[in-house]
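Internal ticket #5521
Category: modeling
Description: The requester needs a full-assembly model to guide mutagenesis choices. All entity lines are attached below as received. Residue total reported by intake: 622.
Assigned to: D.W.
Attached entities:
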Amino acid sequence: MNGLILDFPLFSIVLPLVGAVLCAAFRGRAAKAIYYTVSALTACAALCLVVFTLSEGEYFTRPMGHFPAPYGNEIRIGVLEALFALLSAAVPALCVFGAKKRLERDIDAKKINFYFVMLCLMQTALTALAYTNDLFTAYVFIEICTLTSCGLLMIRQIGRTTIAAIRYMIFNLLGSGFVLMGICMLYDLTGYLSMSYIKDAVASLSSGGEYTVPLTVASGLIIIGIGMKSGMFPFHFWMPDTYGYATTPSACILSGLVTKGYIFLLIKIIYRVIGTEVLASSGILRVVFIFGLAGMIFGSVSAIKEHNVNRMIAFSSAAQIGYIYMGIGIGTDAAMTAALFHMFTHALTKPLLFMASAGLSDASAGGAHFSELQGSAHRNKVAGVAFAVGALSMVGMPMFAGFISKLLFAFAAVGASGKTVVTLVVLAVSTLLNAIYFLRTAIRIYEPATLSSGNAGERIGITAYGQKGFTFACAVLILLNIVLGIHATPFTEMINTGLSMLG
Amino acid sequence: MGKILVNYEEIAAMVLFAIGFTTLVFNRNLVKKIIGMNIMDTAIYLFLASMGFIEGSGAPIIGQAESYVNPIPSGLVLTGIVVSVSVSAIMLALTVRLYKRYHTLNLDDIYMYAQREHE
């Protein structure tokens, strides 16, 4: 049995690839069935791997091909990698299931199988990003992830999504260029592409005081490159258009998982390739920390100015990514745990918010402007509850997952000398700003609709079609949010174990 | 000065990288942006290829020479070229789609038209 489990990672990378080929060959319903099967199977495999690595208490590696590690490629699986793979298998399927109404509205019925092709390929890319122990393989899968996410974005054929796609691609290509340059420099300095081997070489270089500047430049290029791709503060301008105009499941997946895939890779690189000590001495983390803090404030300020609910949630994403980068920037293990916890929380909450806002605007004749959404929570009760839960979680209300991540950030800040006061102050201000725009929206959707709002009292656009799936997906995400919020300790311990396996 | 003369390939790669990068960011013409992206990628391949070759070493075939050149950098360059071809293809496809809709390649104009269309 154990021997079989060791092959699960390869299986969960290859199966979606096969699924993608099959989806391209079949149409409509069959493609959808294939996608759901693939994602269910890979989610089960990932769940088994989580349990397996937890019970074994250590990571395991598998060679890919015939040659052992430094020359051959390999994959390496710990608790966190398996958890992320579980997330990237389950959440997109849930989003597609919940928002299938939007999917059918936005995509040409003849082309819908290509959407599932993209989803399968993206799942391959995200899983491989989590599992791989080879830097260049990571780069290749970063590019696959970029291309498929662009496909998910531009499959809704309106002018705005094409413009958003080109903007998204430009930022992403800049980021990939930086990452590739950084990887090549690291390869030249150390002679390895295998992550674990690079770490030893980097440690010996840095203790000998050799090549300090090239090492700093290489790690800086990788961090900035990944920052560009995942929407770190000064590079977050692609976010509102991308998330605001993409079809709902795409917006959920892009904001919830794709950016997290890159951030997860970054955390892996920090722990497994460059090493926290080397990085801490180079001062790059301080820059990441400041960008993170700036993102928390500026993302929220932009969100307050927005009047379109989708774009508001998109700007809030920029702020939440800021939280994660702040955690990475603090640099202690506690802060990294907080960042990872927030990564998972956000990956569960943002899809909920995007789906809820789609449900609300469906109940308001398709409008997404605040004035049109007034009272929509009464017209679509599930969406109203889902939005309220997501908003409260993002604001950091106790009982919800967002509160725990804020708490963990605050604890981590207290343990970090020199950064405590700044972090706590910005955390407080950012929470306040979050509360302003999220609660304003939550109150707006629960206000009784007035006659002047045009669709008063009418139940426009609400049909039973697709509502069951929507309710199910929202219920699962809400439940997960509350479970994480009330009973977070086992999960944070899991993250801690995973973090010790990562290095 | 001596270092610059010895490492002239890497210097050229960095200069090309900077040229490609600035073109990709600041040029408003979509086709020129794509050209900039290609220059940027090519610069990285030049960097890898020049770093991967050691003067005086032979091809990595047993019995051909005393010392061999590592074949992995060339393999990486080939992989990278495949990746950048597919990225260029998707960017060109997007550009064609935008040109068909807005009849211009200038990104600022496209934003302006899209804004007007939205209102």
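Resolution: model delivered.
Comment from assignee: Residues 66 and 363 of chain A are 57 Å apart (CA to CA).
Ticket closed.
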